């Protein structure tokens, strides 16, 4: 059952606020006056006083700094209760407003105006940053529409980067020292085992290394990057490079905007080497059993040469990606009669394998489009079978509106991704539904010609969940959309044929028959139909009982926060690290901070969590 609200929360429009913006407005003075009252009240632990600084339909989103969890509190009563419960625990202090380029007046839409600024603070455990947005009210006061707080570091335990990096000389011993470190030959043993060496596994390992936590990454493939290298040849990222940078080592300025999968694969291999991440390739975690008395994990790893190593670790991180272990071709009547080849998209490698054949691709989202484009470009007859409607957004127009529309968002050159990450996170998904609806409509207006052309071809299009475009689709189910980089025009031009509607009734000897009576001839049927339950990776290593105890990993809870990735999975010492490059960059630090805090005795695992 979806937790997404049926009605969007009200936006802070000037009409809803019954407010106007004075022509003569000292933005900095307003921000600093509000912040002075806010910081004094928060410091004194006066929840009621802090709450008076918010409009009724407001929110506070916290990532770890006050709650050790990801929480969104919507409405003045919920904010007041949260502050009453947590100010005395976190004891915030050392508040300081950032008087920088991000303090200013923004008008994201003609009827919405806010003063936007960043600030810093400390708690008993750590260092935090925040973002506040102030809106005008009927009596001329400016109050908070939203506040976002984020844990940035732990007191006394900084990342060993920059001025804190290793400053000793190493004459001729680096190679042997590095070999011993990778093999864990000395007294130091891993405290963390990470299963999977893709971007999610490497990002969290890099973060943990900077926090001086011994970590081992176990990768089943022979080379780092093979998780991208071994996928279909035409695969290319649909996210731009300035959104995708990895922790500590950004992509070079010569990098293409959209990264080919093979290029990314090589980069990941370079990243692991450059950041000295301890990786065992051609290795698998055979089993991981948790000791009920100590909560430690007894992990057995089988290496490429057949030998096994056993470690007892406090933390086990799955970084095995979206979806289940392997996508499966669905069971359809008549498959035994089909004279052609049926395969899942994760088994597909390159279009040339099917030269001269007639291909049907089942599915109409990202993988289906990429594979269909590849077939067309190799002169192969291809038809896409669309089972249900798809959300289409062009990367050209969509990213311009979504990422470059206001100060603090992702763009070429500025601001730094660390700033953009925090501005992006400062909008809770459910509170932001109204804004997302407007943004999605603006993109659809710009995409009107291609969307109309697709409809004329019979391709079914939707406007996303509650009309929010791609964003809620990504966060709620990680599918249902295509970010158009050219495939849509090929469909509109009839170069990729489309079959939309009807259900597959049966395979025939030479294709597919549908319940509407229509048939498609095919020599090859590729099912681009998803990868199943992510928890199957946990079940394969830890057993069915453990996987059943885990919270759902992806999808949204009642507050609009991700269910289980990057934080509490419901089992001590068990974590799931996942996401695109941007999510992994940002949230790898959140996960590393939790583990470091536990290792140093700062955090015992008790959270101020949503009571489901």
TrEMBL record:
One of its GO terms (molecular function) is N,N-dimethylaniline monooxygenase activity. It comes from the Eukaryota. Pfam families: FMO-like. The keyword Flavoprotein applies. InterPro entries: Auxin_biosynth/cation_transpt, FAD/NAD-bd_sf, Flavin_mOase-like, NTF2-like_dom_sf. Keywords: FAD, Flavoprotein, Oxidoreductase. This is Flavin-containing monooxygenase. It comes from Collybia nuda.
